[in-house]
Amino acid sequence: MQITIAHLKRGERGIITDVSSVHIPLKLLEMGCLPGNYVELVQLAPFKDPMYLNINGTHLAIRKETASHILIDKIEL
Amino acid sequence: MSKQINVALIGNPNTGKTSVFNSLTGLNQKVGNYPGITVEKKQGVCKLPRGVKAHIIDLPGTYSLNASSLDENVVIELLLNKNDKDFPDVAVVISDVENLKRNLLLFTQIKDLEIPTILVINMADRMRYKGISLDIDHLEERLNTKVALISTRKNEGIDHLKNLITNYKDISVTPCLDTSEIDKDYFDNLRKAFPNQLVYKLWLVITQDVNFGKVDRNEIDAIANFKTKSKADLKRLQQKETIKRYQFINSVLKNGQTIDLSQAKDLRTKLDRVLTHKVWGYFIFFIILLTIFQAIYDWSSVPMDFIDSIFASLSEWVKNALPSGVFTDLLAEGIIPGLGGIVIFIPQIAFLFLFISVLEESGYMSRVVFLMDRVMRRFGLSGKSVVPLISGTACAIPAIMATRNIENWKERLITILVTPFTTCSARLPVYLIIISLVIPEGRFLGLGYQALTLMLLYLIGFGTAIISAYILNKILKIKGKTFFVIEMPNYKLPLFKNVVLTVVEKTKSFVFGAGKIILAISILLWVLASYGPGPEFNDAEAIVKKEFAAQNLSEDDLQRKVASQKLEYSFIGITGRAIEPAIRPLGYDWKIGIAIVSSFAAREVFVGTLATIYSVGSNEEETIKNRMAGEVNPILGGPLFTFASGVSLLLFYAFAMQCMSTLAIVKRETNSWKWPALQLIIMSTFAYIVALVAFQFLK
């Protein structure tokens, strides 16, 4: 199974490998959600949704549904 | 030579763009609307060196030139239209030193439109905390522009920026990105088809159709026929363009910026650990709300009492100082009490706007959106609905406009429909005066009963909004993609100057906007209350004298009886008594009825209306509150404003849709009369029923 941002736990990091352009708004890409950039899960709201992320230095929150369309390679600490 | 330079300030949200605007223009600014749409247009004048003047326009914040909202569309419309009178001679892109990489994306897009573009790197004072160092010379060389490193907080670098703007003609307009890197064939074809046009501009026009589709094409109308790619292909090209731009930006920053993470002192992490915590986050949010309501109530009571008494004495003074006649009566009994009814609420409204602007400026509002999204989604709303619901406590009109950044149409529509339930500042005057009349003083756990009642009314407003959203979510059948992206900006200490400017600006527009209506209504009411048709009005004195001849009344009492007879048979009295049967079951008399009817122009008219009606024919110097307390229920006897009728009125105002401006905005934002009509009918009927039940139960 492919690992996505939705699988991250708090404090974990990964590198974005693929973004499905059908499910992801251009706005998110423009904010830095692009292949090659790093992503860190900063904080989770109750029920693990939405997810507060640090992508390439930009801090933003997205819903878990969207996060599950962004594939990553997890960085083991 | 006194040439005026057109300057456009452009930047991502949360980069301190407005602070730069305030630093450049100071108080020389005016806020209006773009014609036809309700996007705020801020412009100002700045004096530059060598006697040059700059006309500065502060464009809405945007992340890129691919618009996804009406506000962002304004930016593109202006930049694509060379004939617009505001078309910039020079664009100033404001970026934030901590998010330089992302901010540069917008910079490269604007530069590619071949407009001279200055890069401002703001918040330079934070560089040291974050361990960031910049090689400005390198950045200027690679980006082929001039860079101003500034700090609006410390007021540094503004003069340098002014110099750069003055010498804008020296700035190169070479593009950053070669379009053939995206798709050589496609862009070569485009260039051949429209040899006189800038290719990147054409590309923007084509792709706006994909995303938003409202660009005014003017001379490049023919481009609509240039369809050689499917929408999905175009989106893929946009994605590629974004990647290419980031590659360029990364190569620039590789040598232009160094970040020493060991130097970074991260306040954000520490604050977020608490403020977005599963338990503490919500607890703190609740405490903040509680503090706001207590403050609005307690802090503003002193200036309010002061203003109330000033207007009462002013009215009295006018009566004594001016020669008696129709004009003096109109002034003393119509205009002054009517205006007093609005001026008195300036302190509270200013406090409310103060708190809202501090919450937004500090970056806390985004945390609330994050915390609330999951909860709100259950009710068919978005986390972003929290901002309209909270700013709806100031006014539903900007709140409904603030729904524009909700990506999903169904969530947005529901937010628009339920926002008018939140307690707007126009309800505040009504609440305050009634609470002070019918709710006893006293304290519970350090909080006043009156403040608690007010808080309860706000909660009722929110509660009703949420419950109606839940019902609407079940009823409405609208499908759409759900996207939710919100930036979590850095925490900032709000700039005193920005907060003050916001408070002054918003309070001013509240007072003048509502003031005009109130003035007109006060005059109308005074005329209607001072004249009447039949003999009961015109011969009031004779009738009253005859009726009470046996009782041997004192001159004063007799005068009062005459005044009340006149009022009752005046035009307004006749109208009021005609509608009285409909509102009597709610515990109101015809005077309140008139006040409610006039409230449909704007709710805050209520207090001014009562003040005008009560003061017609009265000779004593009295405050609005005392006059209301002295009113007697015509049937039951005893004071008119009892606990039961007071609560009934409070609930009526909590639920009724009584604001024409809001209905107009809802029409504009939903593009249909259906939604505002439903709001008006459903909310007002509901209000009537609740008020009826409350009065009958409590009386």
Describe the protein in words:
Chain A: It comes from Confluentibacter flavum. Chain A: InterPro entries: Fe-transptr_FeoA-like, FeoA, FeoA_core_dom, Transcriptional_repressor_C. Chain A: One of its GO terms (molecular function) is transition metal ion binding. The complex is a heterodimer of chains A (77) and B (699). Chain A has 77 residues and is mainly beta. Chain A is 12% helix and 39% strand. Chain A has one domain: Ferrous iron transport protein A (FeoA) (SH3 type barrels), CATH 2.30.30.90. Chain A has helices at 26-30, 64-67; strands at residues 13-19, 38-44, 51-55, 58-62, 70-75. In chain B, the strands form three sheets. In chain B, strands 2-3-4-1-5-6-8 form a seven-stranded mixed β-sheet, with helices on both faces. Chain B has a two-stranded antiparallel ribbon with strand order 7-9. With 699 residues, chain B is α/β, with parallel strands linked by helices. In chain B, strand 2 and strand 3 (40-47) form a beta hairpin. The model of chain B is unreliable at 210-215 (pLDDT under 50). The chains are: A mainly beta (77), B alpha/beta (699). Chain A binds chain B through residues 19, 21-22, 25-32, 34-35, 42-43, 45-47, 49-50, 52, 56-63, 65-66, and chain B through 63-64, 66, 68, 98-99, 101-102, 105, 211, 232, 235-236, 238-239, 242-243, 246, 268-269, 272-273, 276, 278, 366, 369-371, 373-374, 383, 407, 482-490. Strand 4 (58-62) of chain A pairs antiparallel with strand 12 (485-487) of chain B.
